[in-house]
Amino acid sequence: MNHVGRVLPRRLLPRRLPRLPGRFVLGALLLAVPLLLAFLGPLLTGPPGPRAASFTTADGHPLGTDFAGQDVLRHVLLGGRSVVVIALAATALAYVLALPPAFTAALTHRAWLEELLMRPLDVLLAVPSLLMVLLVATVFAPGAAGLAVLVALVNVPDTARIVRASAAEAAARPAVEALRMQGEGWWRIAVGYVARCCLRTLAADAGVRMTGVLYLVATAAFLGVGVAPDAADWAVMVDRNRTGLFVQPWAVVVPALLIVGLSTGTNLLSDAGLAGRRPRRAVATATTTALLTRPRKTKGPTSR
Hints:
Elements: H1 20-44, H2 72-78, H3 80-107, H4 111-125, H5 129-139, H6 144-171, H7 174-181, H8 186-197, H9 199-222, H10 234-241, H11 250-276, H12 278-293
Helix pairs in contact: 1-3, 1-11, 3-4, 3-6, 3-9, 4-6, 5-6, 6-8, 6-9, 9-10, 9-11, 10-11
InterPro entries: BP-dependent_transpt_permease, MetI-like, MetI-like_sf
Subcellular location: Cell membrane
Keywords: Cell membrane, Membrane, Transmembrane, Transmembrane helix, Transport
């Protein structure tokens, strides 16, 4: 008799995570606000109006004016695209550059090749990321694209180490040896099996990586690297208007909260996505355990 289609008892089913929906909704809201302002904000702004007094809440300026007498709301709508685009591009480029050497080092049986790929990255880890960005910025002035490439390069070493550690654990499983004995190629093993086993680790690291990249980009812009000193940028707004924090706080608080919301929302969505996959695995495990441990019915003697 086939018991696969039967419904499992409730005691075998895992309890749902009660905090998952709230975490997902909160993360989506925190992430949606800065993203919408970053990509749709420039479409909602008009030509710049006349300047008013510095750090005031004059009529026609809902968020007041900045240190130069310009409208804070207009700069908030214009200043998000550079931060968001540079952070996203730098994060994606860091993984593109880190994945090939990390998977190669994890799957190779040649110790010299692993040492050749990973030891130079360990040397780069000894240099602080912000210090390296500032050192390179003293040689040449990077624009927005140069800042994205520079931030991606300083994030490659630790990204490669995390990916390599996760891939090495998956590569040591018997399934990988079975795939090799079947004649499967390196690409099939690395992408078809090892990469799929590393998805949860990569997803968790992506949220943290995005936050670190975002703060590094914002700090570089705060120090004048990659953006013009008078550019409409959230990090530049915090830098330029910090002297009037206690006089007109909206010029500093609003862009700072948008940066914090972007990083916090990314991590909450990443955590919610990882937690959302656990119940399926638990149900599958409970189903398999119930089917394997259930005693089979034996047929009685047949009467002729």
